[in-house]
Every structure is written in C-alpha cells, then in structure tokens.
Amino acid sequence: MTSSKMVKTGLRKVDVSTMIDRSAFLSTLPATSTDRTTALAIVGVSSILFAIAVPFAGIPLPPVPAFVASYQSALAVSDIITAVLLLSQFAILRTRALLWLATGYLFTAAAALVHALTFPGLFAPTGLLGAGRQTTVWLYMIWHGGFPLFVLGYAWLKEADGGARIRGATSRAIYASILGVIASIAVFAWIVTAQHDLLPVLLRDGHYTPTMLGVVSFVWSLSFAALVSLWFRRPHSVIDVWLMVVMCAWLFDIALSAIVNVARFDLGFYVGRLYGLSASSFVLAVLLIENVRLQARTVGLVGRLREQSASDRDFYGKRLALYGAVVESSNDAIITKTLDGVITGWNKAAEQLFGYSSAEAVGQPIDIIVPPDHKAEVRSILNRIAGGESVAQHETVRIRKDGTALDVVLNVSPLKSDNGEIIGASKIAHDITEEKEAREKLRREIEERQRIFETSQDLILVTDGYGNFIQVSPSVKTILGFGPEDLIGHSATEFIHPDDLENTRSEMRAARRGAVKRSFEARYYHYDGHEVTLNWMGTWSEPVKRHFFIGRDLTDKQAAEAQLRQVQKMDSIGQLTGGVAHDFNNVLTVITGTIGILSDAVADRPELAAITKLIDDAAERGAQLTKHLLAFARKQPLQPREIDVNALALEAAKLLHPTLGEQITIMPQLTEDAWPTLVDPGQLSTAILNLALNARDAMPEGGTLVLETRNVFLDDGYASMNPDVVAGNYVMIAVSDTGSGIPAELIDRVFDPFFTTKEVGKGTGLGLSMVFGFVKQSGGHIKIYSEEGHGTSVKIYLPRSTGVQETEYEALQNVPITGGSERILIVEDDALVRQYVVTQVKSLGYAALEAANAAEALTIIDADKDIDLLFTDIIMPGNMNGRQLADEAARRRPDLKTLFTSGYTENAIVHHGRLDSGVLLLAKPYRKSELAKMLRTALAS
Questions:
Q1: Structural domains present in the chain
Q2: pTM for this entry
Q3: CA distances from 873 to 220, 456, 711, 883, 904 (A)
Q4: What pLDDT, in 10s, does the model give residues 752-767?
C-alpha cells in the first residue's frame, strides 16, 4: 500500500509518493496479517512433514559424510549472510536487541563450521582439531542450545520501537560481537576437544545414552522457551513472526536429530538437519526478499524524483521569472547588498525613490543613500543580518540623489546561498514621508482633542446608541461630583432627572434621524443628590454609532440671573419707594408747615391742642419713615467725609451701652491702623445703631455683641461671585451677635423694605433696608451670615479712602504668595464658593479634593491616606458641622491638620464658643495672599 502526500510549493502542489507498507527495518515494522498467515502456513506444513517423519526416524540409512559437509557449509553461509544483514540494520537502528540477534546468527555459523571440522570421517577419520568421539555431539548441543539463548535475549530486549539503543560508535559494538563469538566458540572447542574426557558420554557405539536424552531435552526446552517468549512479547514485528517460524523448525530439528532418531545417519538424522537448514534460511529469505522489494521501489522512486526534479526546474524557472517581474513591478524599493554593504540589486522603484539608476547604484556602497549620522545604524543592521536575524518595520531616514531627506520603513532579511550560508541582505524600503506627516498631523489632532477633552470646563459625554456611557470627561467631577469611572458602562437614565428623561430621548432620536447640533436642557443628579441643570449640545455620528454631547453647567448662570433679578428687584423697589417717599415728603412738608400755625391758633383750647400734637407726632414719624425709604432708595442727601472708623465705632459702643441694656455684653475688636474711609459719619452711626438694635432683639435672654473693624481686600474671585462688588481695598465693620439667627429660607429677604421677622408692632422692617441703601449709596458692600440657633454677623464693607500711604498691614498682605504641593481636602456646602476655593487652592500648586458635606469628606479621608490638610467651613447643614468633622477626622487620622473658615469673624466665632482659642480660622471673604499664608501656617502647625 502507498499513500500520496501533497506538498504545496510556491504556486502549485507536488505529489510525492511515500511507502508506508514496508521498510528495510523488519525489526520495527509491525507484522501484517499476510505475514502471520504465511508463517502459519509454513509452520503447518512443517508440522505435517514432521509428523510423517517421526515414525520412520530410526530407520538407518547409508552414511553420507558429504551431506554433512554440504549441510554445514550451507547453514554457515546462510547464517553469516543473515547476521550481516541484521548488523547493517543495527548500524542504523542501534538497538541492543538487534545486535543480540545478529550475534546469535554469527554464533550458529561459527558453531556449524567447528562442528563440521570436528565431524569424524568428514575431513579426517576422527575429525580435525583433536576431536574425540563425543566432540561433535557436545558441539551440536552447545550450538543448538546457544542459539535459543540469543533469541531469548532478543525477545527480552525488544520493545515496540526496537528497544534500548547503544551509545557510541556502532562499529565498536559489531567488532565486539564478532570477537565475542570467536572467543566463545574457541573456548567451547577447547573444552570439547582438549577436555574431551572430562565430559559425560552422550553417544556410545553410534547410539544415544540416557545423559544425551537429558541434555537434548534441556536444549529442546530452551528452544521452546524462546518460542513462547517471542509469542508473548507483543506487538510482533515482521522479524518476530519469522523468528517464531525459525524456532518451530529448530524444535523439529532437535526432535528428529537428537530425540526420536536412534543413531547417526538414520532418517531422523538427515531430516532433522534439513529442518535446521530451513530454519537458517527463513529470516535470510525474508530479508533478501525485502531488500529486493526495497530496491525495486527505490528505482521507481528515483525515476519519479527525476521526473519531479525536471518538473521542479521548470516550475522554479517560471517562478524565478515571475519573482523577477514582481520585483521590478513593485512599488517599494527592493535592494540587495553584500554583508559589506555593497549594492548588488536595485529595482525600478529604488531608482524612482532614491534618484539613482540601477547602473549608478549597483557596485556602490549603500552609504550613498545613508545620512552621515546614520552610518552606524547601517553597520548594526548588517551585523544582525550576518547573525541570521531579520529586521522588520524599522523606521529611519535616507537621502535621495538630490539631497532630499526621506522617511522610510525598512524590512531587511538575510540572503542565503544554496548551502544555507548567509551571503548578503535583501531590503525592502517603503517611503513613509507623506504617511508620517499625516500620522503626525493626526497625532497632534488627537492630542489637541484629548487636551480639550481633559481640560474642558464643560461636561463632554460619549454614549452608544443605547445611551450607555462610553467616554466621560474629567470635568464631571467638578460638575456632578462623580468620577468618570462612576459613569462609564452605566446608562444615562440612571443620572437624568425623570422629568427630563423623555425629552432627552426624543432629542437623541432626532439626532439619529439626521438633526445636527441639537440644543436642549436636562437636569442631572449630583453625587450629593441635588439637581444640576445642564444645557446640552448633541450630535450623532453614524460611522461610529455614537452620540456626542457637550453639557454646560447652568448653576453659575442661574445664580447670576437670580442675583441680577434680586438687584433689579431692589432697584425697582428703590425706585418705587424713592418716588413715594419724595411725594410723601412734599405732603409732609405741607402738613408739618401748617400744623404749627394750627397749633398756635388753638393754644387756648387744650382739647384741640392735644389733637394738633398728635398730628405733629404722626407727621414726625412719617418724616422718619420717608427718611428711611430714601436711604434704602439711595436718594438721601449724604455728607461724606474722611473718618476714622475705629473712633466712630468706639463712640457708637459708648452710646450703645445704655440702649442695649445690662444683659448685652459689648466687645469692641478693632484692628490697628484701620484705613480711613470716605462716608457720612451720621449715617454710619445710624447704621451701626440699627444693626445693634436688631442684634438686641435677637438676644432677649442676653448675649454678646461683637463690634469689629478690619482692613480687607476683596479680590476678583469674590467680585465674580458678587456682581455688585468692585475688587479693591475696603474697611470692614462687622456687627455680630450670639442670638437666635435667621432661617436659611429668609436670608435673601432680610434687606427687603417692610420685611421683618418681629411681631406685629415691634418693627417697621426698614432698619436693614436703610442700612443696605446707605452702604450701596456709599459705594460699599454688605454681607450677612447667619445660622439658626448660632447667631448673626453683618459685615459692612466701605471703600478705603484714596491718597493715603501704604500701611503696615497692607505691606504684610502684599508679600510674595507662597504655595505648595500638599493634598488639601476642601469642605464647603455652597457649590459656588467651593468651586472658587478649589480654583484658588489649585492655582497655588496644591492638589485639591472637594466635598459638599461632612459625610462625603469622611469617605474621602478614609479612602485617601495622603491628605495633608482639612480646610472646612464651620457652619454646615446636616448632622455634623465643621468642628465635629474636624474632631472625627482627628480621631481617624491623628496626623491630619485642620484649617477652619467661616463667614463669621474670628472674634465672633471664638466668643460664640464654637472654636477653642488658638484654633486656626480664615474668615470669609479672604484674598489669595491671606489664603496662601493661612494654608502654609496650618500645614506647618
């Protein structure tokens, strides 16, 4: 049987027949059913002939010594040839089992020759070599007992793959085998000749002795054991099957020649030796037949290989011509060169790329296209090629004939001769100049877009067609409080306000239908739960199946609009109240002017005089009311002059003692070197008095009133959050109390005229509105801080008077600002203030983290062990204020430093009992230099 293996070579398939049914190595080739059947048939015929010969084995026949000589010679020649063939296989397979079997055949050949030489009457009457009457019998027993031992050894050593193999040269093993056989036969020959008389008698008067029967039975048993061993040592190879046939014939030989016959030259004697001769021929015949068959197949294979070779030459010739055409038609430069860098091949694309013709380039060093600073690179590549290495996708620079630099990518491979020796290099050069420029342009565009994505103050979102977030810009942390990782992979529906969900979906559907740059508003939930309104611009990209959204936070805009509405409302109210007060003043002028005349006319009538007195009191009260209204409307006549606010505050404190009562403690806290301000002193005193009276009413059980002055600078950041403020230097006058405070929902209305939280009949609601109007008319700013249950602090900021020398305080505030690189956690419940503080802290070089409340801050503190400073507002909504947050943070992180901030002044905070003396506090508002100074102070504390 033959199988055909298809090998694909180049552009076609080649059919190579491979023999798999026979080989020269019968010791490893598995036996087929044909081998077993043939062997069994031969054994069967031999058995039949044996059975026929047994009854006649003792019939004497005429002695024919020439038969013995012919038999022994043929047997020796057959065994020697078999041994040579087996040794030739051993020289290739190197198996110990095969060597052992070949040695057995050499042993039988040598024993047959010695047996023939010592046989009586063959070459000499008593045999050669000093043979005696028992010599040939003993040699026969040694001969027929030795071969089974070698077969047994073969059976024990063989395995499925031939068994264990020898190491070293096979020739030495063969020589050792031959010398071993010669030595052993020489020893046995010496024993059965020189020591003849010491051996038991096996043959007497031409007949077998009982000893002979015992010895021959042992020899026969050895042969049978060899047969059984071969049978059980599976799997059987071809040689195993025929060795079993040999051992069967060997058993028949011994039985007829030495057991069932009577003496020499009887029928058994002759037939037994014919069996022995057959036994020596079976394996030889199989080996010879297989060799002839192998030779015939080899001749056929050589013929097919010749045909194949001719076909391959034709094929490779065509392929070579094809490859040549491919090389010449390639768009890439293909260059071959020696390992010394001399050009040997130069295709048309190389001519076009580098400007040199093939005639100009071939024979020249490759350096003609290499820039001077890249020559070492070329040498390095050639060294790698010489070592058998290939160079792939190597980007470098080469130069044209005209000196133009080219960006190229090289693929260099070793060029080998027919015997595999590396004789040069094959290089493919692809021009990537334009590609590299395009790639660099694309890289810059991607980089720019990535920078826009990372630094955008607006929220940039990318979702798939189902609304799942794919990309989220880092600005989401500032706007929504989430990190990008919190949104990516989630559906947008988890974060959009339910009332805006359907509108968002309809906008997305419209975008997918082709509408571009859709603009709409939708509310998203912040991390802390509040709603954030965002204005969205969205579009759909069909090629990538993605929605792209840019969302602008409207929080600042809405706050600014609300503030603007408040200003407009106050202006409108001011216009109204100013007009009403002006007209009412005209009416009161008539009333107050005529009431005196009426009073004189009825002076003699007490009952009418009392009525005129009531009218006069009412007119006075109306005049005061109109005065307040005009103050709120910023239309009262002011007489500003440059004053010392400290002196005015001390004077006001003296006047307040009898007014407020003994239950109120007044504590002036006046800064040294307070700047002068340009203001109406009477109106300022009235404003302080109004604020003090409001504070008294908020402390019915008594308390502390703190009266402070301080030089401050309101910077651009503060001005951006308070549109009515112009950045600059101000003198702050603060009136703080420890009273009941103002509810958060009412804080925006306290400056409205006629608004009051007092009982009916206990206030007009014009005190704070009058203060508000006076401050605004004076070009100042007013700010109120209040927490229900903690007290109120009202701060008046009056512009510093111009044209004065720089004070010591001012010089201290203008020292160079120092920042740092530490990590600071900023806790502030007001989103606008928090954003402002984060910006300022980052501008100083610090790493800023932010939290809207104490619970969120503690989560960040637990997660980030590298925070250096906690910067927290004191008064915050929720279950934990800033002081409690600082205590809990110190319990968890004893090494964590703390800086407090508050809208209350430092003195008011300390005396309210909410901070210990010496605890660091930065009062709002503060300038950048004050923030920088306090941060460094806190970090160094």
A1: 39-297 (1.20.1070), 331-437 (3.30.450.20), 461-624 (3.30.450.20), 637-799 (3.30.565.10), 823-940 (3.40.50.2300)
A2: 0.37
A3: 114, 28, 22, 9, 10
A4: 665 565 544 444 445 5
